[in-house]
Design goal:
41% helix; mainly alpha; 15 helices; Collagenase (Catalytic Domain); 2 domains; 5-stranded mixed β-sheet
């Protein structure tokens, strides 16, 4: 599973270069280091990712061609311990105080001394998140508001007493399918899950608007601590209607997870790559909903309460679910704001976002959830 958390491992390396003379290939070599690796390096330096995840992640990235460094002879070592001061160097590189060449030299040192072992069979980084037990229990927090609780890989779903158990479990299954799309029992992108948890992400599930969702309006001090996207019972797996849990739960994952894990790519701000693609889809930059969109725009979101960040969230949702086939029969219903309702239309008209959302390094879903998690 290719994640930024894997990347942290790379940073380990520089520290070593600070104390060890290096004499690697003198011939010019252009290393390829994805920009987002610096974020991962910083997280590792800050202790948000453990040493094993960092090292195994970088091993996987190099072995599988995601990240390239100069040819280096594989060494054999007996001590896998990484000195604590290496994390300092990782943080310096993440902050731009050490250049890429120093970072790469450090990687080479780890490889040549057998601390990092590179083979095409290197296993994908292992996630240390909790397994899934889709059992409803009492809420461990906010008991004043919520009576039911399900945890999916450490990500919570809270529900009020008026919400039926089958709706709670359906939402939990959808969340599990989004996070573990290949149903192997572990999240496809552990870094995204860790970011959701770090930002207190979750789904509050209410019976209906303005009935038992007081926390969204009156408990501001509590609510502002959480990255929540609300879901309501009547829109969750309704009979003969579109299942809004596919939308709201994906919103939470992208907003609280992907935007935080990959801020330069999926960040909900105008300088991110997805924002650039969104502005292209809308025919220009609009920080608020315009009175009218340019002719030819295929994304024309019209909710005036939705500001720029929110528009990115919605664009992510429309493109992702259209690629996965969830919008194929809904053009008449959604065409006023989203015209590319099939995978083929997205590929043809918006190839940049199609290529981004199907890039395997981000481990985005490839199958739309149906509420029946089999992991």
């Amino acid at each position: 599973m290719i994640t930024k958390l894997a990347i942290l491992a790379s940073i380990t390396i520089f520290s070593l270069i600070a104390i060890t003379p290096l004499s690697f290939a003198a011939e010019p070599y252009v290393s390829e280091i994805p920009d987002w690796i610096k974020n991962t390096a910083g997280w590792w330096a800050d202790g948000q990712i453990d040493d094993g995840s960092f090292v195994s992640g970088v091993q996987w990235l190099i072995s599988n061609g995601i990240m390239s460094i100069p040819p280096t002879e594989q060494g054999v070592g007996s001590d896998d311990a990484i000195p604590s001061w290496i994390k300092n160097n990782a943080g310096w590189w993440a902050d731009g105080q050490i250049d890429d060449n120093s970072f790469v030299s450090g990687l080479q040192w780890l490889i040549s001394n057998g601390i990092m072992k590179l083979t095409q069979e290197t296993a994908e980084p292992k996630s240390e998140v909790k397994s899934v037990d889709l059992t409803i229990s009492s809420s461990p927090i906010l008991e004043k508001y919520f009576a039911k609780y399900v945890e999916v890989f450490g990500v919570p779903i809270y529900a009020t007493s008026g919400v039926s158990d089958d709706k709670v479990l359906h939402a939990a299954n959808v969340l599990a399918q989004y996070l573990d799309n290949d149903a192997d029992g572990t999240p496809d992108n552990p870094l995204v899950v860790e970011k959701i948890k770090a930002n207190n992400g979750g789904i509050p599930l209410f019976s209906e608007p303005d009935v038992d969702d007081d926390i969204l309006y009156t408990a501001s001090d509590e609510y502002t601590e959480y990255c929540w996207v609300a879901l309501y019972e009547d829109e969750t797996n309704p009979r003969n209607q579109f299942d809004a849990s596919l939308e709201e739960i994906l919103h939470m994952i992208t907003q609280c997870g992907y935007a935080e894990a990959y801020p330069e790519i999926f960040g909900e701000h105008e300088d991110s790559l997805i924002a650039e693609y969104m502005d292209n889809a809308r025919g220009g930059f609009f920080d608020q909903v315009p009175s009218s969109y340019p002719a030819g725009a295929w994304y024309s979101y019209d909710d005036y309460t939705c500001e720029y960040e929110c528009m990115i969230t919605e664009y992510f949702y429309w493109t992702m679910t259209s690629i996965l086939g969830a919008q194929e029969d809904r053009l008449d219903e959604i065409g006023h704001e989203w015209k590319l309702n099939t995978k083929e239309k997205v590929m043809e008209t918006d190839p940049d976002i199609y290529n981004l959302l199907t890039d395997p390094q981000y481990k985005l879903p490839t199958i739309i959830p149906d509420g029946n998690y089999q992991g």
